[in-house]
Each structure stands twice: as C-alpha cells, then as structure tokens.
From TrEMBL:
One of its GO terms (molecular function) is protein dimerization activity. Residues 56-127 form the O-methyltransferase dimerisation domain. Residues 230-376 form the O-methyltransferase C-terminal domain. Keywords: Methyltransferase, S-adenosyl-L-methionine, Transferase. Pfam families: Dimerisation, Methyltransf_2. The keyword Transferase applies. Signal peptide: none annotated. This is O-methyltransferase-like protein.
Length: 400
C-alpha cells in the first residue's frame, strides 16, 4: 500500500469512527480489519517479526504467572502488591515475577505503580485463570506440539497425520496409540484439564448460533407433527446451544428438544435446570442414533475434531435415523477458498490446533464431500454475519 493509499484508508477509518456503534459487532470488526491494513502499510518486516515474538512472549508470561498462582493473587480490590511478596507466595525468585510482569504491563494487562509494585486493572479480570487466562494456558499446551512439528513430519508418514492415534499431539507427549480425547481423560494433570475445560467454555463466543439457520420458519411443519422431536443436539454438552436454538425458534407447540452427550456429561447434569421441554439422552455419536425421524439433527463444533473418514462415520450413524424430510445441520467455521489479507486469523490458528489432533477446519467443498459420502445432499449454507461460522444443511440424497 502506498503512502497516499494509507492516508486515504486512514481518513476513511476516521470518518467511520465518527458513527461507530460499539454494540454493532459487524461494524466494529470491519474497523479493526481496516486498522490492520493501515498498520500493515506502515510496519516493516522486522517490526512484524518482533510483534509475533511479542505476542508469544506475552502469552508465555501470562501462562507462567497463572500456573504458579501469581496472576490470580493480584488483589481484587486493586490494592498494590510487590513482586517480592508475590514471588514469596509462589515460592519463586522475584525476578521471575518482575520479568513476566514487564511485558504484561506493556500490553496493558497490569498496572505498575512504582518499581516492581503492581495492581490489577479492568483488563486483568478478563485474563484470570477462570477466564481468558485458561485459553492462554491451553494455547501453550498446543504451542509445545507446534514446536515439535518439524520432528513429527520427519518421523511419520503423510498418512499418520490423519490417524488420531498417531497425531502430533499424542506423539509429542509420548501417548501414541491413544486419541487426543483419550489423553484428555487419562493423561492431563488435573490443573491442565481444568484449564482446558474452561477454555472450551470461553471459546463458545467464537461459534455463534444466532441469526443463521431460520429455526423459526420450522414452526408450521413441527406443529403439524408434534410427536416428532424438533431438534436433537448431538454432543450438545450442557445444553447451552439448545437453549439458544429454542429462543431462536420462538414458541412452537409440541416442539421437543433433545440433548445428547456422553454418559459422564449427562450424569453431571443431574439436578441442573435445563428449562422446560429439554430431554436428555446419553449417546456416543460413534454408535447408531437412537432418536428416529427428528426434524433436525444438530452437530456443533464436532466434525472439526476428526478426519474425513471419521466425520463420515459420525454422520452416517445419524443419517440412518433420518426420515424423508429430516434435516442434518452442521455448525462449524468455514475456510474461505482464498485467504483475505488483513482479515481475522482466528480460523487459521484453530485449524493449526485441529491439525495437532488429527482433525481439520473445512471449506464448503470439503463439507460437500463429507456429506456426499455420508449419504447427504448439501442443500443450504447459512453464514454468520459476524464471524466465519456457518450452518450447513444436509438432506437425505434423492433416490433416482
């Protein structure tokens, strides 16, 4: 971008800021991308490389302070506390605290009152261990895997990347023969597992559910056949998405909502108020779907964790339960055919995570192939206006 182009872009940005509504996420994200383009025009290659290192170092510093208990010990009332006191509580050398705090202060996550004395600010609260701090710690669990990728590709065949028992993740931690999900249940230390679970809760916002598939338009069909389940949320966790779908659909007489997940998850829901009309069923999506002829079978944030062959099998297990007009909806992020420069990179680092465990983020064409092999016809793609997420609708293939 030339100087004149950068100036024109900046003037456009200033004009847009005049009318910015911060509650309008679409507008806000567009302005962030415009800001990225201006920065790219001004930044030298060395500054870009330095910024990458800065990001890694800041995340590493935060992860260390969280894991040794320092970050959460910053007093909640904003009282200043010294590095020496924090280090004593954690049992580490004071320089560990001061050196990590420097980059966090520079990033605005913590305030420095005077030499080596710190206090919490508004941003600090968002990065505690039970919030986005958990995400940083989990990110570094995967950064360890990425660091070993060169050695992995030297010692494995191209086909091994798609074998979930030989994935980069399980190989790096010495657990080949198990899948990533088996490792989660048996090999992570309790603190890391807790941080991973919190991360999964925190990333919910990356996968919006609203304003894509028109659930409300199903009202007439559902009320004509109230005995049929309306939505079966396969692998739906604690029902958080099913509640949103119910809101999106509005009042529908006879609409039954079914939440499915593994027995350990369903057991943990006992005594929890999921709301009127939500039924729970223990179900493993590698087994045959027990609920027949539902209006909608819903899969969210599931297929990206598996290779194509396993994804086909997961879908086939439910396709066999579908009725003639049943719909199968997959909610995932969509990889664009061409990567836009200066756009969000969220999808691409998520795909790097998935590559670590034998899964993948997919293009529309990728999903079309998976649907086709599972016996489905892709009939609709409903994109989010605020993210790279979409809902893809499949119907049973027509018999010629």
């Amino acid at each position: 971008m030339s100087k004149d182009a950068a100036l024109a872009e900046t003037q456009s940005l200033l004009a847009a800021l005049q009318s910015l509504d911060l509650s309008d996420n679409t507008q806000r994200v567009a302005l962030l991308r415009q800001t990225n383009r201006i920065r790219a025009a001004l930044e030298t290659p060395l500054e870009l490389a330095s910024r990458w290192m800065e990001t890694v170092a800041a995340a590493g510093a935060l992860q260390l302070l969280i894991r040794i208990g320092v970050f959460d010990r910053l007093p909640a009332d904003g009282t200043p506390i010294s590095a020496a006191e924090l280090a004593q509580q954690a049992g580490v050398d004071a320089s560990v605290v001061t050196r990590c705090m420097r980059i966090l202060v520079a990033q605005g996550l913590v305030e420095e009152m005077k030499g080596d004395v710190y206090k919490r600010n508004g941003l600090s609260d968002f990065f505690k261990s039970d919030k986005l701090g958990a995400m940083m710690c989990t990110g570094f669990m995967f950064a360890r895997i990425w660091a070993m990728f060169p050695d992995y590709v030297k010692t494995h065949t191209p086909e091994d990347l798609w074998d979930v028992t030989k994935s980069p993740f399980v190989w790096t931690i010495g657990q080949e023969g198990k899948s990533f999900y088996e490792v989660l249940d048996t090999c992570l230390d309790p603190v890391q597992r807790s941080l991973f679970d919190l991360t999964m809760t925190n990333v919910e916002g990356m996968y919006p559910t609203r304003d894509m598939f028109p659930f409300r338009e199903m009202k007439g069909q559902v009320e004509l056949e109230p005995e049929r389940p309306f939505v079966v949320d396969v692998g739906g966790g604690r029902g958080q998405v099913l509640k949103v779908i119910r809101e999106e659909a509005g009042e529908i007489k006879g609409g039954r909502y079914i939440l499915q997940d593994l027995p350990i998850v369903i057991e943990s829901l006992k005594g929890e108020d999921l709301g009127e009309g939500i039924e729970v069923i223990a179900y493993d999506f590698f087994a045959e779907q027990p609920v027949k002829n539902a209006h909608i079978y819903f899969f969210r944030m599931i297929l990206h964790g598996f290779n194509d062959a396993m994804s086909v099998q997961i879908l086939k297990n439910t396709v066999s339960a579908m009725g003639p007009d049943s719909r199968l909806i997959v909610c995932e992020k969509l990889v664009p055919d061409m990567v836009p420069v200066g756009g969000s990179t969220e999808l691409y680092w998520l795909d790097m995570l998935m590559m670590s465990v034998g899964g993948k983020e997919r293009t529309v064409a990728d999903f079309q192939r998976v649907f086709d092999h599972a016996g489905l016809e892709l009939v609709g793609v409903y994109r989010s206006k605020t993210s790279q997420a979409a809902m893809l609708e499949g119907r049973l293939k027509r018999v010629a």
